[in-house]
Structure formats: C-alpha cells, structure tokens
Amino acid sequence: MFQALANPQRFMDFSRWAAPLVGIIAVILITVGLWLSFIVPEDYQMGDTVRMVFIHVPAAYMAMFCYACLGGASFMGLVFRHSLADAAGRACAPLGAGFTFLALVTGSLWGRPMWGTWWAWDARMTSVLVLLLLYIGYMALQAAIDDEVKAARAASILALVGLINLPIIKFSVDWWNTLHQPASVFRAGGPSMPPDYLWPLALMAIGYMALFGSLWMVRVRSEVWRKRANGLALQAAG
Amino acid sequence: MNGFWVMLRREMAMAWGRGGGPLLALTFFVATATLLPLAVGASPARLAAVAPGSAWLALALASLLSLERLFERDYEDGTLDLLALGPVPLEAVAFAKGLAQWLTNGAPLALAAPVVAVALGAELRLVPLIFISALIGGLGLAFTGGIGAALSLGSKRGGVLIAVLVLPLFAPPVIFGAGAIEAFAGGLDWHPALALLSAYGLAATALGPFAMAAACRNALS
Amino acid sequence: MLDLDPGKYGAFLWPAFAISALVIGWMVVDSLLSARRWRKEVQRLEALRSDVRDASQP
User: Fold this and answer.
1) Which of A80, A96, A164, B59 has its CA 20 to 30 A from that of A156?
2) What is the reported pTM?
3) Cα B132 to the chain's mean position, in Å?
C-alpha cells in the first residue's frame, strides 16, 4: 500500500475520495461519542468531571500517535528521499501540536477540580509538555530555512533525534518524579474503568484518529498542490 | 586518525580564540546564578535548597551560548565545504567539534559549577559530585547541542532557534545531573543517576556525530 | 437521558469542551482553506499556461 501511494498522482486520486469519506466517518463517530459521553452516569468518585475523560484521553493519545507518524514519515523521507514523505511529515506537525495542546489544556482543566491544582510537575504532564516543545521546534526549524528541500530534511533529522529522545525523556521524567514525589496524590480515576465509560471513550478515540487521518490527507494534498503551483510559477517565470 | 587530531586541535584553538570563548560562557553562567538570589530572595535556607538544581539550570543555559558559532563560522566561509570533500569523514569532523566544545566549554563550566553552587549555599561535601556530574553532563550537552547547531545551519535566526531545538533534549541530563546531587545531599543512593547521566552522555557522543554530519551534508547540498 | 448539567464542575467541563471544539475547528478550517488556496493557485497557473500556448499558436 505504501508503495502504491508513494506515487503523488496515485495518492491524489486515492485521497480525493478517501479524505472526505474518512472525515464523514470521523464526524459520525465523534457525534455519537459526544452524545454517549453525556448519557453515561456520573462516576461515584469523580462526579461529572468523568466526562473530561472522553476529550482528554483521545487528545493525549493522538499527541503521541501524531509524533509516531511524524517520525515514520521523516524516516521514509530521509531514507527514500521521497517528496511525498516530506509532505506527510510537514502535515503531521501542526495537527500533532494541536492535539498535544488540547491534551495539556483539558488535563489542566480536569486537574483543578480533581487534584486542586492547574498544573503539577507530574511525570506525564512534563513529558507531554516536552512533546509540545518538540513539535514547536520541528515547525520552527522548518519555517526558518528558506530552501524547502533542505528545510524538510533538517526537520526530518530533528524529528528522528526527537523520536530517539522521547522514550528517554519519558523514562527520565518518570524516574525523576518517582524520586521526588509520592504517587499517592496522583491516583486519577480510581480502579480500572467501568465498561460504561469504555464505549464513548473508544468512539471518541477512533473518531479523533479518523479526524486526524482525514485532515492529514487534506494537508498532504495541499502540500502537493503547493509544490505544483511553485513549479508552474517557476516555469512561467523562466 | 591523524586528520582527526588536526581537526581537534584546530577546533580547540578556534574555541579559545573566538571572542573570549569559554570566558563568555563562564561569565554568563555566573551572571545567571547571580540573578537567582535576586529572583527568589536571599534567604540562605531557601537558596541552599535550590542551589545544586539552579547550578545545573545555569549550566544548561550557558552551554547554549557558543553553539551558534560551532558550525556557522565554517559554513559561512566555505571551510565546511572543503571539510566535506576532505579525507576526514564529516562524522569525525563533527565528533572533533563536539569534543572540542566539551573540552573548551563544558570543562571550564564544570570547574565553575561547584563554586557557583557553594556560593549559592550548597554544602561543601557536594563539591566533588557537582564537578563530576557537570563534567559528564557537559558531554551530553555538547553533543546534543551540536545537533541543534548543525540543524539550524542556513536558517535565518540561528541562536534562538538552537535554544528552542535543543532545550527539550536537555531534559534528561538535567534530571539525572541534578538528581544525582540531590540524592547524595539527601543521603540516598546517587549511583544510578550518575550512571544514567554517563549513559546519556556516551549515547549522545556516539550518535550525535552522525546526526550532525547528516545535517551538515543537507545544509551544504 | 442526556445529562447536560455538570453542576459545580461546569466551570471546568464546558471550557474544556469549548477549547477542544475551537482547536479542532481551527485545524479543520486551516487544512481546508490551505488546500483550497493551493488548488485554486494551480488551476490559475495552468489556465495561464494554456492561454499562453493558445496565443502562440497561429
């Protein structure tokens, strides 16, 4: 499938119908998920804030998923020197940064009533914050270099360095936190999740993922057109 | 191998020669540490609690300073083009640059770190560990920093960009370095933190040159 | 059925949903607008090129 879609024209033909289709699926899933989110009973411990799970957890999940996609695309771009892979990486970053930001903000809004604080230097929160910084660094590097091919390759190298570093950062922050802070305060949600909550959560998570897939295709299409437009403008000038 | 030593000597000479080199980083380090009591208050108890950690923070910031010129200068005057064509592989050149950065910047900063920490109120018995952790940590900071410096070649605003790219990657060494000192101060086992710090430094030393060389080739192409 | 009254937690719950909607909305609009913009640009340039070609033919 990768082989087939690596051809820009074939990708354009495929995404022409796939992007709207996946987008519609995302809208349906998220609508049903949201509706279910407000139907499920309140949690005996967390009360109504349990509904925060359904937007916070999918966003946090997508924050990581997008970085994995970004790393994969960067690897393909560097190894196979494929322009579509560069476009794919470029398309991932703003979406990933958006989801990461959402995970942080909803987490903060959830933490206030549950833990009594907007922000704590808890291991997870810190490593997600570092993830956001990595996304921003990727975009900043891409924006700062004029030559597009060079910018894409430099950003790809950074994405890969970040990909190697992410587990280390995650591990080190875990280690740092357990060294300093007793984990008792941050026991969110009590025991494992009741099945009532699993359905809306799964729908929202798959919905977010479909949304990302659809928007990602739209952004790659936009990149392909942008390159074509630049090429045409160059021809017209030359 | 001979070429590598020539490169290393050249890099060291340039690092010492260019505009005060380590002196500038040292001054910045001390100046940052000076701001700390002004910001959090001069109460000895409060300062002593944060002294080793803030010394590490200032260290990470100070090691950013000279990164901007690490590759930029050779890139601008065309030396990097010649080096890329020369007999010494670009990876070895990058390794020499990172090593020189460590020796001329990380080492002086490591010497200054215990002084600054003690001035801020750290206990004297922490001095050896602060020096050693700063020295080992400097290796990781120099090589991860070098990656950022090589990546931002040819960009419009080098300095700030390097800081944005590199500071998130500085998280592990800062955690392990400051963690080792804190564990030692608290009477806990500080060996694992120091071992992890060394592992990070060695991994950065081993992998960093490849990323730097790839970034340089990309900038030159 | 629908429980849209989160009680004292409304102050935290609604902003979280609102911000999620805003950010996701921005992602959708930004993606669609940029795709539209560059598609139009390609069409414009291609039309321009075919005009030139037509004009140059006798």
Assistant:
1) B59
2) 0.87
3) 14
